[in-house]
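Possible regression after last week's pipeline update?

I re-ran a chain I had predicted before the update to compare outputs. Posting the input and the new output here so someone can diff against the archived version. Not blocking, just want to make sure nothing changed silently.
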Amino acid sequence: MNGYEVLEHTADVGLRAHAPDVTSLFEQATRGLCEIAGIWQDGSGTPVEIDVAARDREGLVVDWLNEVLYLHDSQNVAVCSVEVDEVSEERARGRITVRPLSEGAETAIQVKAVTYHQLAVRDTPSGWSATVFFDV
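New output (post-update):
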């Protein structure tokens, strides 16, 4: 089962992503973050490599998604696609495709950062799941 659902929280917003494997899980979490923030725009663009290291998969999710936010904020870009090549216990590597954010485009929710609040990454009998909340 691929996909994600938006989770409501008192002061934040989050998502729960689902996928059959861990690389697809990172892709779904990225897509969910971008949809929540209003920065997903289908189409073509320029690939940007992402390579993060952390002590565990939870830290990898936070670092990966924070890198996506950083690229959006620092370059004023939208995300067109995501492809994750590798996720190990301590490293995630892949790329997002970006293009300039459309003139006049407004983000849906201003996401400031990815948090560790209620963060969970699990390998379950039905596939992988991740719960992550964003500071808005």
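Follow-up from reviewer: compared with the archived run. The helical segments are 22-37, 57-75. Marking as no regression found.
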